[in-house]
Amino acid sequence: MEIAIIGGLSLAILEIIFEKVFFKHIHSISKLNFIIILILGPISLIGHDGVWFKLQPFFTGLFLSGFLIFNLNQGKSLMLTMMEDMEKKANVPEEIMTKIEYHLAYFLLFNGIFMGYLAIYESTSRWAFFKSIGFYIVFAVFLVLEIILIRREVKKIMLEQMQAQADMIQTHHGGQID
Fold it and tell me: Which of 2, 104, 4, 127 is nearest to 58 (CA)?
């Protein structure tokens, strides 16, 4: 258990250093993850019960999804802020980014709840699978579904823009299209 806690703290510290070096500041998500591990690790050691450490993805999912939804409801987008930090800008409309962020928040919430269930009721090996490679598999499925939804949304926006242009042309020509 001690090795897992040291490994978790080490990875969280590396994440913070990486962000400080490459982005010149540390994102709230990384700070949150570090604090959760810093709190749950000693609780696990004191109680001699690894379940507290295993609950880290549960708490991270709950806090992060709550943070994202709260900020979105306040008109702030963490994803747009993070995109501004990167050198390459993506040409994704803010409306679509907001929808993606809401979907991501709900994904993190459901994943956190699922990880909490695994931590309490399932074996450590099953929990470890979904904490590592299993998460990436589930996230890949989420991304595929998200891409399908984004394509549908972009198509809808483009059709609305084309209809608005056609209406404007028709109005400009007095109802006649040449």
Answer: 127
pLDDT per position as a tens digit, 60-88: 999 999 999 999 999 988 888 777 777 66
Average per-residue pLDDT in the chain? 86
Q: Output 81 or 59, whichever has higher pLDDT.
A: 59
Q: Tokens for 159? A: 């059709």
Residue 69 belongs to some domain of the structure: yes
Written as six digits, the tokens of 105 are: 């928040």
177 domain residue, yes or no:
no
Both tokens of residue 165?
């242009």
The number of distinct structural domains making up the chain is 1
178 falls within a domain: no
Residue 161: DSSP 8-state: H
Q: Which domain holds residue 70?
A: 2-172
Check if the beta carbon of residue 68 is closer than 8 Å to that of residue 101.
yes
If we measure between CA atoms, which residue out of 127, 120, 130, 122 comes closest to residue 49? 120
DSSP 85: H
Q: Which position has the higher pLDDT, 46 or 113? A: 113
